[in-house]
Amino acid sequence: MTVGAGTLDRDFPAYALLGNKKRFTGVSLYSGTGMGNKPVQLVYNKGSNSSSNLCLPGSLEPEHVRGKVVVCDRGINARVEKGGVVRAAGGIGMILANTAASGEELVADSHLLPAVAVGMRVGDLIREYVQHDSNPTALISFGGTVLNVRPSPVVAAFSSRGPNLVTPQILKPDVIGPGVNILAGWSESIGPTGLEEDTRKSQFNIMSGTSMSCPHISGLAALLKAAHPEWSPSAIKSALMTTAYTQDNTKSPLKDAADGSLSNPWAHGSGHVEPQKALSPGLVYDISTDDYVAFLCSLEYTLEHVQAIVKKPNVTCSRNIQTLANSTTLHFRWCSGTNGL
């Protein structure tokens, strides 16, 4: 299966209170002592190095950031590395501000210093404040864990989009699953940020990525196989796809964190997986190896290409038109059925 990533109804809020009394909400997994209650000076792109707005290694000048909160644009280097760069230069806090490339997607990280990640719109307001206020200040605080977040799920901005460029007739991704701020086991041989200078030890960490959503779907496949040992991989895939849902917990269509707009099948595929319904989907669309071969033949691949793909030198495309039509019809029904497809 091709798996995309969505958010959970759980969040880890953090706040940036600016000197103009405006308070903006972001996310963070920072678990240290914090900044206290006194605002400090806020800086953005004050160094002579043109990459200082990105907080790349070696780009910040200590005399400009020491004892201050630094606004860092998201992009190029790792989010947690930016905090390490700020700390190494003497900064005591960071506001990680999204740009157009990352939109409104918020990913919580175990930063090395007090830090909050904010979306592009809030980031633009903070950048404008820093550049136009004669004495910009900021105070970062943290809100712990919040449940029942609405709306959720939301398709993650980092989740790859379809269609399948080789064969656009096949809808991709197949489904989405939980992939943002996922709690999982973690090796104590490395700190939660993965940075060399991070000496903290933890048996658990919270990570984001399609590498987090894929194990969820793999686990669901194992669950369905245990419940229905006779099901083929295609039947399991069908059950997960035909029972996926496309409405969030506000009963509205799924949204896309990339720009805040409504999501579409090229972002969420059939929808977000629903384990309980997948156990008893009512109908599954199975498919055999011969059906796949027939589909490849219908794409006018050469016989050599088909044989290379299926790794069976004795395969031929000498099938009647009805077989090919049936194969194509099955594929279409699988990708365009009811219950979220």
Automatic annotation (TrEMBL):
Biological role stated in the UniProt entry: Required for arbuscular mycorrhiza (AM) development during AM symbiosis with AM fungi (e.g. Glomeromycota intraradices).
Domain PA, residue spans: 41-125
One GO molecular-function entry: serine-type endopeptidase activity
Location of the region described as Disordered in the Swiss-Prot/TrEMBL record: 251-273
Keyword Protease: yes
Name this protein carries in UniProt: Subtilisin-like protease SBT1.8
Coarse class of the protein's main subcellular location: secreted
Segments forming domain Peptidase S8/S53: 146-250
Gene Ontology biological process terms from the UniProt entry: proteolysis; response to symbiotic fungus
